[in-house]
Amino acid sequence: MDFEVGDVVCLKSGGADMTVEKIRDGEVDCVWLDSARRMKQRAFDVRLLEKTGENRGVIPLTIKINGLDPFAPDPTSD
Known about the structure:
The chain is mainly β. It has strands spanning 8-11, 18-24, 27-33, 39-45, 49-51.
């Protein structure tokens, strides 16, 4: 399979989504976040990986303080 830098991949056996960082001599360097949100990095044999086709690792986040979205425009300002 042909991978490009920036592709989202995972191990064929499952696991975290990873981003391709570098490709060289049959190995693909990948980066990902572990469950504690720490960045991890490792090289994998190209035969162990497949493209996920999407970035499943992104989780939408909504923040509200006292019921208000602090990032929403201020409705009282012009």
